Amino acid sequence: MRFLLLTLARREEVANARWGDIDFTNGVWVKHDVKDTTGKGRSQRLPLSNAALDFLRYLPGYLNRDGNALVFPNRDGGKLDNWNRIAEQIQKGSNTRDWTRHDLRRTGATLLEELQVPVQTIEAILDHSNRFANAGVSGSAVHYMVATRILNKVEDPKLVALNKLSAALDHIVADAKSGGDTGRTDAPH
User: Fold this and answer.
1) How far apart are CA 99 and CA 138, in angstroms?
2) How many angstroms from the chain centroid is the CA of residue 117?
3) Global confidence as pTM
């Protein structure tokens, strides 16, 4: 669930993630067969925040990772499939209820909006649509833009946003652990 929050990925994208899809050198997750509104599969290159990369490095399969192995396998090494039971356990442990895994994407998107991340960047992270599709621009434009950012040392706005999200999530967790005192003078006590 934490990885879902750090990446705003869909449940199935996380369940299908393989170690070979993660480029640790460049900090990018290549998600294959991402479903769009037409139901067609395509891929997405999502930069990973430092927190997401650290999270992956902490997983048991990281050190001896096989490129074809699932990042988040079930106990038999197969696809993680009991999401409802996992969500119920987390809701019980966190004393919460009535939320779905997809709500994590919505919450993350809302947090990014509150952090003043441009909507276009949020949409790119969520991979709702190809922002060039209606502009009559070649599908290669995205690859040229990535290469241009690398050559000009421009930080990917999605990475900046996901690092902001990670920091906000860390703050929320720290605040909850400390009893909710945010340090704000206008906060009710």
Assistant:
1) 39
2) 15
3) 0.74
Sketch the domain layout of the chain as residue ranges. Answer: 2-177
Looking at CATH, the fold of the domain delimited by 2-177 is given as hpI Integrase; Chain A (1.10.443)
pLDDT tens-digit readout, 67-87: 999 999 988 888 888 777 877
What does the alpha-carbon distance between residue 22 and residue 65 come to, in Å, rounded to a whole number? 11
